[in-house]
Structure formats: structure tokens, C-alpha cells
Structure prediction request, 383 residues.
Amino acid sequence: MKIGLLGIGTVGKGVREQLAGREDMGIQRILVRREIPELGELATRRIEDILEDPEIDTVVELMGGMEPAYSHVLRALRAGKNVVTANKLMLSYHMEELLQEASARGVQLRFDASVGGGIPYLYNLMRTRRTDEIFSISGIVNGTTNMILDTMQSSGADFSDVLAQAQRAGYAEADPSSDIDGIDARSKLCIAASVAFGKYLHPEEIAVAGIRNIASEDVLAFKRLGYTCRLLVRAERISENSVCAFVEPTLINPLEPESTVRRNDNLIGLVGRRIGQQYFFGQGAGKDPTAYSVVLGLTEIQAGERPFDGWMLDGRATVDNSQLIHRYYVRTTTRLSIPAEKLRGGGGANLYLTSPLPVDRMHALAASLRLRDPNLFFAGVRG
Prediction:
């Protein structure tokens, strides 16, 4: 197998290291954005050098972001090349078109590494769908936010200090918005829910709340209430063509599986009609776990395995977040206009525990309240 590698960042370097010394597959060219002298003749700044090379049969896209990654992947599929990618943002918006293009060209689009890094989650979602009906999926899919929340609750440190620590350690980007605002988690939920329920979801229909505004007084309140906070994703089948899908900080019982997830690990689950509850735990990101998943996809393509064949998604699903109802914890400097118990603490803010209300109503209420209180924080309460 001759590979064209798009991007030589952290994961790209991991893939190159894991392929080193293999005689059955190797990297023929590497697309770079700037000159990297140590790559020698492997490096090119022209995508055409990869797309027009008849010896390259598989493209690995690890550039990240929307463009030019999307255009390069689409052109690679149209050129009759298999594609392996870990790009969750691109896939969440363009999975339908790319899968259809791969099917029409008789090649594979492998994206196992886009959700859960080295955890074999998407692969097992597909396997489960073949013989069972999946009712719901949920869990922790972003290691950066989990590390921040875990550290804040175990050490009492402030959000800004923990975020800076995560950035210094390389777990958080210089611009952490995608992680702390829940966008990364939303992209992963969009992909996983599409696979689980057999219908494409649009990411912008999925309700999302992040942890940017979490404060020390919130952590103290969680402790008094006897809860642990984690950023969770959830999607649940409502009907044949509609699902409930959202991302939000969630307060859970300390005995729940998600409460035990430390540092930057992930825990992703599914509930099936016959199989019941299953969880998949491990490193959801990082150089070696994600590169491992990419190389596994390459190995299966080379072996002629086509685990994704025959499961093409059928049409689109709408997101209906009016059907799932639970309580919410809210910190705000304004007064709530809905039934809620006022909690003690909070400094200059009001702390509330609401009566049960639909997910879509809470997210709409939060958007309205933020016009007056941009530092508002809320979290769902499970159980």
C-alpha cells in the first residue's frame, strides 16, 4: 500500500512512526503547508502530486479543520483513492456527501478515529446496528474538558488556572474554544448519532452548552449537592426520523460510570434493544491512540476488509429536544422565571435547581438569559 499523507502534525507524526519499518505499506508523499527540510522528497505543497500519482492508492487526511481538508478528501475519493481520516469537524458537516462519493467510486472512507481516538467505538456501533436496534448513545468524548472538570473538582483550582495548565501540557489548544464551548463534542456526537440511528444529523441542529463559564462557586455547589460534573453528549431515538441530541455539562451521581473517568480519558456508551448497556473506555485523543486507529483502518483496507459496506445511512433525521426532560442547575445574576429551588451560596449570583423541563426549553432560556448575564452557567441533572 502506497499512502499519501495530508498533514504532519501530532497525529501525522504518530502515523509515520507506527508505519516505520513496515514493508507492506509506506508513505509515498506528505502534503505540508510550509517547508520541512527533514522530510526531503517526501514533502510536497501540491495536492496534485498525491492525487495524480497512480501508485498512491490511499490518502490519510490529518490536517483538521474544514478547508482545505474537505476539498482534498473529496478530490481524493473522486480520483479513486481510499481515504482514512480523523477529521470530526469536516465529517459532521459533509459525511453524507463523502460517503456517497466513496460508494459511487468503489473505494472506502474510513473514519473510525474521528470519535474516541483509539477506542473502537464507531466500529462497534456499526456492528451492533447490524443485529440490534440502538436506543441511545451517551458519554464523555472530549478529554480536554474532562481533565479540566476532574482537576477543578479534585483540587479546587480555578477554571483559568486549570485551562492554562492543560495548554502548557499540550492537552488544550492555544485557542481552546472548540473544546470548552462543546463544539468538538458536538461534532463527535453528530457522527456517532448518524451511525447509531442510520440517519444523517446536521451538527447545527444539536443543542450545545460548554464549560467556559464554570466557576469555583459552581464546584462548591456540586459538592454540597452530592454530584460530580462531566461534559456529556447524549442522543436518543425519538421516532423513525427524529432524535434528541445535545451536549451539556451534567451533574451525575458519584457512583455513575462517568464520574469515575479521570484526567483526559473518554467513556462512551450505547443502549441496544437486545445488548442492553455497553461502555467503551480509553484514551479518546492523542498522538499514539489516534494514530493507532488510523493505522488499523489502513491495515483493514489492505486486507480487503470492508466493515463499513452495506450500512449506508438513509436520509436525514431532525433533532427534537422537546421530548427529553430533566432538572437543571443554574447560576445567574438574574432571576429565573420558571419553577426552581433557590440554593445557598453563589456569592453575588443566584444558584437554582429547576423543576424538570425539556432540553430545548432550557437551552433557549439560557440563550435569552445570557443577553443580560454573559457569565451564566448551567448543567443538566441526571437522576
Observations:
- Residues 343 and 351 are 5 Å apart (CA to CA).
- The first helix runs from residue 10 to 19.
- The chain is about 35% helix and 25% strand.
